[in-house]
Amino acid sequence: MSNPLKLNPIEEILQTQSLMILDGALATELESHGFDLNDHLWSARVLLEKPEAIEKVHADYFRAGADCAITASYQATVEGFLKRGIEKPEALELIKKTVYLAKQARDDFWKEEKGNGDRLKPIVAGSVGPYGAYLADGSEYAGNYGVSDQLLTDFHYPRIKALVEAGADVLAFETIPSLQEAKVLASLLKEFPETCAWLSFSLKDGETISDGTGIEECARVFNDAEQIAAIGVNCTPIPAAKLAMSVLNRHTDKPIIVYPNSGETYDAETKTWNGEGACCAFDEDSVVLYEAGARIVGGCCRTHPGDIEALAKRWR
Asked: Angle, nearest 10°, between helix axes 149-165 and 88-113?
């Protein structure tokens, strides 16, 4: 069967590079610049208060060496904005704005960079966080929502449509905790036949996603899905990520994506991170992940531009 995609930007990058480098945490950087994200909109709150700060963080990651920026739409949903008193038309424009900010940062960076070195033009991934992120109660690390496929469809469709219309190069279905939600997202993607997405799960442990489904089963279900451009995990410590990479590498032909967190643990009740970060350098960890099968690597919560710069220096 012919592929309906006009372009799979991930495939294009991996044809040229051995490793595609993602950006790191957006919210962590915004917090380091003084923004209080203790809000049910999380980093999307800054869209309302100071959107240029989001653009600056994207620019910092591009300069650090990222091949891809992930938009600030992880927790930007129509329902979330409605809770803030923002009506649906404006909510959809705010979701689109997350793409415009990332693309502006990318295009400005590319004007600076063009002609210097052999870098490929970076891409923009429209973040589609899980239903649990909207709940803002840590459900993206459990996944047992107890809701229907139709509710999930109605929840996700408007944001996906807005991100596609705004011109995201690829979609990032990320921190997905349940096989049910992953199936709904993959089904919705068929409504946009020229768009592809990566599918990245949150983990219960190195062999199961948050709802208890085996990683092997997830690989099997989506291995033949043409519009799923990569499959993997994110926001998990390095040891669990490494094990998950090994399992995926045995059961999927797709590029494997991983963007671990710092190794600290998130407390959903206090909304704080606890414990110590990874003891090894992020770029050294990337070698371990690459050897386990990963071909797309970046950072999630509590990672910084310095981590991405270290990745770029090692791999580019």
From this structure: 50
